[in-house]
Amino acid sequence: MKLLNFFRRPNTTAPVARERLQLLLAHERAVSGKSDLIAILQEEIMAVIAKHFPVEQEGIKIKMERGEVVSTLEVEVEIPTPMCPSFPLPPKPMAAAIDPSEAEAFEDEQELAQTGS
Amino acid sequence: MAKVLVVTSGKGGVGKTTSTAALGAALASSGKNVVLIDFDVGLRNLDLVMGAERRVVYDLINVVQGDAKLAQALIRDKRLPTLSLLPASQTRDKDALTDEGVSKVIGELKEKFDWVICDSPAGIERGATLAMRHADVAIVVTNPEVSSVRDSDRIIGLLDSKTERAEKGERVEKHLLLTRFDAVRAGRGEMLNVADVLEILSIPLLGIIPESSEVLRASNLGSPITLNNPASAAARAYFEAARRLNGEALDVIVPSDRKSLFGKIFGRRAA
User: Fold this and answer.
1) Is residue B256 less than 8 Å (CB to CB) from chain A?
2) Would the pLDDT of B108 be above 80?
3) ipTM associated with this complex
């Protein structure tokens, strides 16, 4: 085997360096491209959704992927249902933002759920 | 129309100051009026590489703060009358540099010179961002080595976001200067080759400076390599890079001091 190794090309490390760099930089570019834009988007999207649904700040995930031709923005919002143990969310500030009729509807559903069980 | 050029890299020790001196002297010897500004406040070295260390009286911070006039602080090169140097302060803190102050100094220099070349400090802090702030053209100095390439990528990101041009929605013209390149080792696959670095950083190539003992000899003597040994491979590469900066379209080759097995044409043009 040693003889075989002797005839092979000496260890070429440059291709390894190149691959490691390409992987790392693809990741770093995505992260640094995120910057403040994603944080601002997250805040503003939350504000809009919170007007209509009782959602928590952590219930939103925003991901941006930059492609060569198009980039995609992926927004994932968790909206708790009455079945969710934490359902009536911290009421005061959020409830004010909810349309009163809708809030009632939620309460009704909750009662139903409770009587049902 | 004067052009502001920043020589930057992120990583230290890759050859920013050496390249600033060599390119500045090459441009000046082609008849352009050139001023070199050292932005490395507290760790100035351009004066030393240029052999002007004993002639520094006032510096960039004195001018920014109004303690000295620009004309008092500029040091004219003794070898090339078209080449001047504005040294950095060795004692002061880089916080003494203000955006408005730097902007004013660069504005004044643009009226007197064809090229205003800013030698950036390493890093991505205030000194480096101020050096690139007003740039029209940027040279990203990179060694064929992983940490240097990564830092260059970061600097390219900053050139596209933190410069005055970027904020106005314009582009800074960016060029790659690959320094300390060893064609033999790259050929054996022991070192990133030119195509690898270009593919990863994807900015046009301005030149390839071969690793050469002549570079150290020149800085030992306090003379840009393009003046100290203009016939050396490294100096020829800098002269060609300077011609490309002036808009000439020349093929980029790897110059060699040995007889030319490795002086092969890469068939690339600088944009």
Assistant:
1) no
2) yes
3) 0.80
